[in-house]
């Protein structure tokens, strides 16, 4: 029982480290033609939004559409990094069970 509690505590500490590391990882998503770029952390927190083309600011509908596309692109990339980090940690904490997390 003590061994199991120790492993659980180690797993919690490892998860904290991973979350801290994911805060330092930044990915960028972009809209079609790269008119809007969104920077996001591995923990899926928006860091910034850049409008590369000032002309897009005059077309509200296009701006909204491109912003959604850029944000979704960034979130998808952050999800991939987040998932890879979690799989790596799970495999290290529970050798032989890494296949469960694929």
């Amino acid at each position: 029982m003590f061994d199991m509690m120790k492993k659980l505590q180690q797993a919690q500490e490892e998860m904290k480290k991973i979350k801290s590391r994911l805060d330092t990882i930044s990915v960028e998503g972009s809209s079609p033609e790269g008119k809007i770029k969104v920077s996001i952390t591995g923990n899926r927190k928006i860091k910034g939004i850049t409008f590369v083309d000032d002309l897009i600011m005059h077309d509200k509908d296009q701006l909204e559409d491109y912003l959604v596309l850029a944000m979704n692109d960034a979130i998808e990339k952050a999800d991939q990094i987040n998932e890879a980090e979690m799989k790596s940690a799970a495999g290290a904490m529970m050798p032989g069970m890494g296949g469960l997390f694929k």
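Residues 19 and 66 are 29 Å apart (CA to CA). The two ends are 28 Å apart (CA to CA).
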